[in-house]
Please model this.
Amino acid sequence: MSEVFDAAEIEAARVLFARPCDFLMGAAKIDQLPPPDLPEVAFAGRSNVGKSSLINALVGRHGLARSSSEPGRTREVNFFLLDERLRLADLPGYGFAKAPRGEARRFQNLARDYLRGRPNLRRVYLLIDARHGLKGSDAEALDALDRAAVSYQIVLTKADKLKPAAVGAGAVAAAAAVARRPAAFPRTAAVSAVTGEGLPELRAEIAAAAFG
Ligand SMILES: Nc1nc2c(ncn2[C@@H]2O[C@H](COP(=O)(O)OP(=O)(O)O)[C@@H](O)[C@H]2O)c(=O)[nH]1
Ligand SMILES: [Mg+2]
Model:
């Protein structure tokens, strides 16, 4: 089932993500963040890469994290509380051409300030569309994560759009692209919010990062 996690770890993670998960709050400014009193993991990536869909799929609740058709929501850091012991943070997307320049800078600064000053942040999942690979704006995000020294892991999204061999090749390419980056986690993940592939393993990765 998984080369990295055993059946008991996969099952424990499944049980964790089957626990209640609710929207906690959206923070539009750095001083609105919840206190850093619980382990947190964050999901980052270009607009439309599938951040909100992945959070929904992980917790099995469609419509929990809103999709990017509601732009206001995507300019905040949105927090979800899982089982009253783990917070999931949906970060503002980057690389969104339609956002006005000043506005784009404002929410990118928010994401950067969040990443720099969050002692309870256990890992950032940097989502990349499996069909497109890493883009220039992704490289900028990786630079920011390396500078902030926040552990991050690459997650290829929308794996259902490609044949398994192509997803595998994309995973190898992404792993090579981050191999020398200091804060990058060596494993990459590949998921689909549509078919559910890769979700059991990613839940186990998150549980290990948060509580391991
Ligand atoms: N085929 C496919 N489409 C997806 C997947 N995840 C997200 N999408 C679609 O991609 C678009 C953007 O998703 P969203 O979660 O809003 O992206 P966000 O801006 O990163 O939060 C939506 O139309 C989703 O339905 C996936 O795993 N497979
Ligand atoms: Mg979103």
